[in-house]
Amino acid sequence: MAQATAGPEIERLVQLLARLPGFGPRSARRAALHLIGRREQLLSPLADAMRVAADRIVVCGACGNLDTSDPCTVCRDPGRDTSIVVVVEGVSDLWALERAGALRAAYHVLGGVLSPLDGVRPEHLSLDGLVARASRPDTRELILALNATVDGQTTAHYITDLVAHLPVKVTRLAHGVPIGGELDYLDEGTLQAALRQRTAM
After folding, report:
1. pLDDT higher than threshold 50 for residue 145
2. Given 5, 89, 109, 176, which residue has the most CB atoms within 10 angstroms?
3. What is the number of structural domains in the chain?
4. Burial (CB count <10 Å: 0-12, 13-18, 19+), residue 94
5. Pairwise CA distance, residues 66 & 201, whole Å
6. How far apart are CA 92 and CA 76, in angstroms?
7. What single string gives the DSSP state of each residue in 109-162?
8. Residue 36 domain-assigned (yes or no)
9. Among residues of the chain, what percentage have pLDDT more than 90?
10. For the domain that residue 118 is a member of, what is the CATH number?
11. pTM
12. Residue 167 domain-assigned?
């Protein structure tokens, strides 16, 4: 049996860090040692920030975003076109689209995608709220900004069928050749999507 190399407090820090995405036991140990070595500059401020986050961060009742207020900053923004609702899988996707700054619309976070293998069924997602938003007379378009995976596409088709009876336009993000992408390095699925969605010059 391996002997503990540190006290229980440090071991707990390592174990908790190891649960983060992209961290394993070794990277968690390195991160823990780095934080402890910079206690004043990093560890204490990080602990304070995490305490504040745990106390104040809430899920927006309107869109599902994470913020310190409900409704969130995005939903309270008067400069948005709320007739367009961008449907995303998770909050990280919402934040990525906001960083891109291409469209100032409203959002709806599903909280995942349908995945029979993982046991994710329609009742596990925020679909009722989406249908309610799509039913509003002022909603004219749903943009399905879901990942180009099998589960993402299955979810997109399911949503399309779910709102088919409503007078709302349903679109999805274009899939194809990324800017700076070389054809030789792209997978067949991406190339097929790019050819199907070709546009006039």
Report:
1. yes
2. 109
3. 1
4. buried
5. 41
6. 19
7. E-SS--BGGGTB-GGGSSHHHHHHHHTSTT--EEEE---SSHHHHHHHHHHHHH
8. no
9. 75
10. 3.40.1360.10
11. 0.82
12. yes
